[in-house]
Amino acid sequence: MLQLIQLFVDMMERVGFLIALAFAFSRSRWMRSYMSYQGDRTYQWRFLFFFSAYAILATYSGVTVSDYTYRPAPWIGEVSPTAAIANARTVGVVIAGLLGGVKSGFIVGIIAGVHRYSLGGFVAVACMIAPILQGILAGLCRNAFKKRFRKIASVQLAFLVGFMAEALQMILILALAKPWEDAFNLVSLIGLPQTLANSVGVALYFVLYNTMEREEARIGAEHAHQALQIADMTMPLWRLDFDKAVAEISKVLNEEMKSVGAFFSKDGVTWIAEGRKTQHANDLIIRVPNRPQVGQFRLYFEREQDDNPSRRRMLSSLAELLSQQYAFVESDRQTQLLADAEIRSLQAQMNPHFLFNVLNTVKSFIRTKPEEARQMVMHLSKFLRKNMSHGNQRLITIRDEYELVMSYLSLIKSRLGDQMEFYADIDERLLDHAIPPFTIQPLIENAIMHGIKNKPGIGVIRLSVKEELDEGKLHARITVQDNGVGLEPAELDSQSEHAGLALRNIEQRLNYHYGKEHPLEIASKPGEGTIIKFWVR
């Protein structure tokens, strides 16, 4: 009995050494991710390496048992044919299975078992097979009690699994080791001390694991609070003009994240530079669905920041929150722009002068040209209906927009007669491409009201929808051209209120949907006319 107690004390010293080593590793955030693997493939092989090394170290630090007694030694190099090792190898294998599952327990068990077999001894075969089965057993128990081990690992369950795994090893020694009398005497000596010590070792590791989990949860909560606090501060800033918004948000990020520099770049060009650059940086990428990357904030730090799952989740969540804020504000802004476009279109077309002119023309045609009067009423009805339906949509087809243009031109041409000619060159394959509503029609309207209306002679408007190469890819290109009075470059921003606002409205909506900073390409020469082009991607 005294010998059993002494062996148990020696085994607990070995187990205590391994747990102390694990505690020292747990203080390093770099190692902590490998010690608490929960399915993240980034750390899978590092996790397997860590616990394989852990199990091998437990074998080397065991005590040699021979002639029904044992001799403590600081390090085991080899085992004589008549000897065995009392060790804590089971601790590393069982922990790998409980945390990583059957696959991880199996792999660590193979490595630990093959290593033990290489040392020799009359129980080498049994001690090679035992870690493999122990790893599988621990993995199966982990799956059976998945919720308990995934949330807060149960120390009691860990002890029970460790006890069963060690008991399995003793059974294998009795079943496979020869001669059986030596195997029986060995199990009688080391069975109870080793089983209890290793079960306690597994349980102690999960005490440490629980502490790690609680600490990670606390750090995660702090990070989540920090991300939400920053998001709360940045939300109203997105409502500023874009360049001002990112400048103010860079200041907030720089201050709240305790960085030494915050930069914002778009399309590879730095827009905002707050602070200075260092070698240590983190990126917050701003992106919205169905659009090119909006841009990215890059935060620079004086020293390398801790790279752990909690911090990575915080940075990812913060980038997602900023992206959602941008998308929400832009969506709200686009709704307002669309409403403004609809109101301006209705105001421009349905003002008393427009209605008076259309109805007056219809009145004059009723007796002389009844068929044309009927057509004008139909076009007016169609124009009103499409105006109202398009105002409720973010995107429509080029076909729908073209029909709106033709209804509008039919009403205008009835008044202008031969003073205006309209030509359309449209690739029918592109008619089902989606574009924001009220894009082509206001351009046609501008061409008439501010181009050919004040031009002597016949005014000509050309609409082209063609597929052309842009940055190596084929995209639809829409062109509206007139031969009107044209404008000086300085006059482009000083047109009438309706014309200037309409162009800016169109440009902002195209920018939102296609991500191009200045989507409208405007070329105008006095006396020669104006050409406006934009891409549909």
Automatic annotation (TrEMBL):
<dbReference type="Pfam" id="PF06580">
    <property type="entry name" value="His_kinase"/>
</dbReference>
<dbReference type="InterPro" id="IPR010559">
    <property type="entry name" value="Sig_transdc_His_kin_internal"/>
</dbReference>
<feature type="transmembrane region" description="Helical">
    <location>
        <begin position="119"/>
        <end position="145"/>
    </location>
</feature>
<feature type="transmembrane region" description="Helical">
    <location>
        <begin position="91"/>
        <end position="113"/>
    </location>
</feature>
<dbReference type="InterPro" id="IPR036890">
    <property type="entry name" value="HATPase_C_sf"/>
</dbReference>
<feature type="transmembrane region" description="Helical">
    <location>
        <begin position="45"/>
        <end position="70"/>
    </location>
</feature>
<keyword id="KW-0812">Transmembrane</keyword>
<keyword id="KW-1133">Transmembrane helix</keyword>
<feature type="transmembrane region" description="Helical">
    <location>
        <begin position="7"/>
        <end position="25"/>
    </location>
</feature>
<dbReference type="Pfam" id="PF07694">
    <property type="entry name" value="5TM-5TMR_LYT"/>
</dbReference>
<keyword id="KW-0472">Membrane</keyword>
<feature type="domain" description="Signal transduction histidine kinase internal region">
    <location>
        <begin position="341"/>
        <end position="419"/>
    </location>
</feature>
<keyword id="KW-0902">Two-component regulatory system</keyword>
<dbReference type="InterPro" id="IPR011620">
    <property type="entry name" value="Sig_transdc_His_kinase_LytS_TM"/>
</dbReference>
<keyword id="KW-0675">Receptor</keyword>
<keyword id="KW-0547">Nucleotide-binding</keyword>
<dbReference type="InterPro" id="IPR050640">
    <property type="entry name" value="Bact_2-comp_sensor_kinase"/>
</dbReference>
<keyword id="KW-0418">Kinase</keyword>
<feature type="domain" description="Signal transduction histidine kinase 5TM receptor LytS transmembrane region">
    <location>
        <begin position="40"/>
        <end position="208"/>
    </location>
</feature>
<keyword id="KW-0808">Transferase</keyword>
<keyword id="KW-1003">Cell membrane</keyword>
<keyword id="KW-0067">ATP-binding</keyword>
<feature type="domain" description="Histidine kinase/HSP90-like ATPase">
    <location>
        <begin position="441"/>
        <end position="536"/>
    </location>
</feature>
<feature type="transmembrane region" description="Helical">
    <location>
        <begin position="157"/>
        <end position="177"/>
    </location>
</feature>
<protein>
    <submittedName>
        <fullName>LytS/YhcK type 5TM receptor domain-containing protein</fullName>
    </submittedName>
</protein>
<dbReference type="InterPro" id="IPR003594">
    <property type="entry name" value="HATPase_dom"/>
</dbReference>
<dbReference type="Pfam" id="PF02518">
    <property type="entry name" value="HATPase_c"/>
</dbReference>
<feature type="transmembrane region" description="Helical">
    <location>
        <begin position="183"/>
        <end position="208"/>
    </location>
</feature>
